[in-house]
Amino acid sequence: MTRTVLSTPYSDQKPGTSGLRKKVKVFQQPGYAENFIQAVFDVVEREPGSTLVLGGDGRFHNRTVIQQVIRIAAANGYGKVLVGQRGILSTPAASNVIRKYGASGGLILSASHNPGGPDEDFGIKYNIANGGPAPEGVTEAIYARTRTIDRWLTVDAPDVDLDTLGTTQVGNLTVEVIDSVADYAELMEELFDFAAIRANVSAGFTMAFDAMSAVTGPYATEILEGRLGFPKGTVRNGVPLEDFGGHHPDPNMVHAHELFETMFGADAPDFGAASDGDGDRNLIVGRHRFVTPSDSLAMLAANAHLAPGYASGLKGIARSMPTSAAADRVAEALGLPCFETPTGWKFFGNLLDAGMATICGEESAGTGSDHVREKDGLWAVLLWLNILAVRKISVDQLAREHWAKFGRNYYARHDYEALPTDKADALMAELKAALESLPGQTFGSLAVAQADNFSYLDPVDGSTSSNQGVRVMFAGGSRVVFRLSGTGTEGAILRVYLERYEPVGGDLDRETPDMLADLIAAADAIAGIARHTGRTAPDVVT
Question: Exactly one of 18, 50, 110, 112 is catalytic; which is it?
């Protein structure tokens, strides 16, 4: 029987780039998670008796909130909940399940690449019926509802056994615990030439995959070791842990340093890869060759036709604005449209649904295609494996050949984390106020050609997204982008994106920091990073 629980609003439930993210202790406040879940159900469009997909990355507090969601869904007229076994569903796998079974949407319980544990982070994100993140109009409506909500609905029922496959009734709601991996693995077999990859493995091709004690462990173990023939132990840290083993599950040079040490060691495997907390990001590193996410997007787009799922070619390429222009050069060579969107995978959804783009990517290690409506870490790894198997080439050779053909976009992102919000806001406000006066100024050898605050006009629905990041473009194609991130849970994160284009025939094999030194100095001079924040170096460089 449905029970109404009176509640009072919390003022801090505004979803960010990828849902609502806070510390676990915030979500453990009485009614906090329930208020937000009820607000979602009050706002989102669905037919009576609809199906909801539910799962997460296995972090601390996942199982508790899954049980809350099930009871609230039962009280709100859902007909069925599909929940991943043990509460596990990677973000791309959840997107696939939503699409495959015609669900009205899904709740993904994750704070992505943020740390997990009782004192760390938790998150809830709603994905719509196309499998993609809720667009801004929906998240704004959810936020508005959280500010006025005065009750949430539930039913009294025992916890559902999340560890055993099968169905359970919770009131009028059918809860089906599904295999977390099976549907996703089946989709990957349709897209990629598993036989070619297996043959390459049999011929001696080796790899190391770091699942970072996060959600992709079961997926990578089943696909890489179970279906592609890589030996046991290829997948490292393959068991999802509630605290990710005490590590930060962000696949970059800092947090995946053990993988880098392996790949730059004397007996390095042929290929190295990692994924993040919820499985939507990827790290690609060959033997003694790191591939930036921006370059990975471009290289995958240039070679995607070698995989069965993309043999007929691409419809277009899309990238987030801070991502380097390397993919633009591939699109131009292939005669394809290339779209520059704001940060946030939801902006790719319209392009994918309209058939205007096939492959999309973000500099923050997210790459994906129209097979789902999320970025997909393991998908990117498998496409790399498919390309390398068909071309019979190393990562280093592929990178060198790509740069020789298209030129190289030397690129790095500098993150200044947990800044006092007032100081970060002051820096950005001063920067925006200076935009009109920047063109014509010189910083060392760099002359500013143009500066703006990026705004995006969606070519599908005509909506406009403004204030998406400050761009400073220099003569010759170099640029710096400044943006405050919406993925943190404490303070503000200032992201500074640095890009220098070196044309075909230029200096294509130098160390990235050397090539970006002038840009780094210019960025500090333009934005006054040290002056505003007191920081003389970034916390993370990727």
Answer: 112
